[in-house]
Write a structure and sequence with these properties.
Helices cover about 40% and strands about 15% of the residues. It has about 475 residues and is an alpha/beta fold. The strands form 4 sheets. Strands 6-13-10-7-9-8 form a 6-stranded parallel β-sheet, sandwiched between helices. The chain has a 3-stranded mixed β-sheet with strand order 2-1-3. It is an enzyme of class 3 (hydrolase).
């Protein structure tokens, strides 16, 4: 959304006219749009209705080194002008995959960055990051600090540790502004990292690996790299994805260090040894297609008429166990027949930009007469969370959540939240009072409306079960 807004301002048009964007459950384009920003998942879904993608003359695939699940599938198309860009990708590998296409290296306009490694391995990267941040603040010239951590828990602990250490330093120490950035933080608090620090203060931003590429903050001169990140990994035995802490790849480390050279010469402090960087870290991050659940992609590829997925020309083929497990799961849901082809149920499931399990739940709810209610639950489940649990107010937020608690199901708890929000006229102040993400709830409302539109296109009977307890247990 942000790049499209910037481009529309530079072109001098209203967002959604000549320049627009399209993400899951949101399309801000028109017939006048000539430049369209979109996610790889949206592009893949567009290929369902328009296999040749005739309305596009060129596709630019940015940050290709991230190797997202949909990116690897979209990358198979060879009948369009495709420009693949990245600062750290394996260019030769992409070139060979597309038939030895030419590679262009464009020099960047960044400033030099000094890389400083730890002399010995760090037992506690969190403690090491806190000490390094304080040392920079007390001994180095002005310039903001960016610290890379794995997730919310580590980020909050780092922020708290820096604030406590600064108090221990006593009076006369220059002020410091510590700002966390993670996905569940309300957007208005995330936006504070772009505000200039008060006079004489130094900003310290503690973020996840989203700040490697997705965020660019002016004034960053120092980067502290913990050397770890969280990756979504699929466990085929459990049949679930989980976020697990892994060492960062060399490509990720280089992306992180580059953050220090955007506005002037900078420094990157790596909390691991040079030997570990050269000999222990992977050159590139393991592609998402080799480590996550493939159910959605298998369903999409089957709908595109690709029958034998075991021989499909993936750039990096996924583990056969993951592929077979995903196909078994789709067969269990009724999306695939015994011989592997797509069933009528599967073709209806493809219409929903949802996980196959959620799509099946929506379709099955028609038989129970509760499509409206299940659409609400599915919309809530499409958000990371709708509850906000601020530090030092955990007990208060937990008490507020208990007001919506349904002993039968967590899904009914989400349903209760939405119903109460609707009865209170979708007010943001009501959300704030009950420790609920107002922005997430507005997104839930938008997603719900679009899901119900798809249900109507499929000629499903959209009804609500109301106070019928037996049907509510079905949810």
């Amino acid at each position: 959304m942000t790049p499209s807004a910037l481009s529309s301002a530079q072109v001098g048009c209203e967002l959604g006219q000549e320049v627009g964007y399209s993400i899951r459950f949101e399309d801000v384009t028109s017939e006048a749009t000539v430049l369209k920003y979109m996610t790889d998942g949206v592009l893949l879904r567009e290929s369902l209705t328009e296999p040749d993608l005739d309305k596009y003359s060129a596709i630019i695939m940015d940050e290709a080194h991230e190797r997202g699940l949909n990116t690897d599938t979209v990358a198979r198309r060879r009948d369009l002008k495709l420009i693949v860009t990245s600062a750290t990708m394996d260019a030769n590998k992409f070139s060979e995959f597309f038939g030895s296409v030419p590679v262009f290296k464009i020099p960047g306009r960044t400033f030099p960055v000094d890389i400083l490694y730890a002399k010995v391995p760090q037992e506690d990267y969190l403690e090491a990051a806190i000490k390094q941040a304080i040392q920079i603040h007390l001994s180095q010239p002005k310039g903001d600090i960016l610290i890379f951590m794995t997730g919310q828990e580590d980020i909050l602990a780092t922020c708290e540790g820096i604030s406590e250490r600064l108090i221990e330093c006593g009076e006369g120490v220059p002020p410091i502004l510590v700002l966390p950035v993670y996905s569940l933080l309300p957007s208005e608090l995330q936006a504070k990292i772009f505000d200039p620090a008060p006079d004489g203060a130094r900003k310290v931003i503690v973020a996840t690996n989203i700040a490697e590429t997705s965020l660019t903050v002016d004034g960053i001169y120092y980067v502290i790299d913990s050397g770890f990140c969280k990756l979504k990994v699929y466990n085929s035995r459990m049949g679930m994805d989980s976020l697990t802490v892994y060492p960062t790849s060399q490509a990720g480390c280089n992306q992180r260090s580059g953050r220090a050279g955007r506005t002037g010469p900078g420094r990157c402090y790596r909390l691991y040894t040079e030997y570990a960087y050269s000999h222990e870290l992977l050159v590139q991050t393991v592609p998402e297609i080799q480590r996550t659940n493939l159910g959605n992609v298998v369903l999409l590829l089957k709908s595109l008429g690709i029958d034998n997925l075991l021989t499909f020309d993936f750039m990096d083929p996924p583990p056969q166990d993951n592929l077979l497990n995903s196909m078994y799961h789709l067969w269990f849901l009724g999306a695939l027949a015994n011989t592997g082809e797509l069933t009528p149920m599967g073709r209806r499931m493809v219409e929903f930009p949802l996980d196959p399990t959620l799509a099946k739940m929506l379709l099955f709810s028609e038989d129970l007469g509760c499509v409206d209610d299940v659409a609400t639950v599915v919309s809530c489940l499409s958000m990371p969370t709708i509850f906000y649990r601020p530090k030092e107010r955990e007990a208060e937020s937990d008490a507020a959540r208990e007001k919506f608690f349904a002993p039968e199901s967590d899904h009914l708890t989400l349903h209760n939240v939405y119903l109460q929000w609707r009865r209170n006229n979708y007010r943001s102040d009501w959300c704030n009072k009950h420790f609920i993400h107002a922005k997430a709830m507005r997104k839930v409302k938008e997603v719900r409306e679009q899901i119900l539109d798809i249900c109507k296109q499929l000629k499903m009977r959209v009804t609500a079960c109301g106070s019928d307890v037996d049907q509510r247990f079905g949810v």
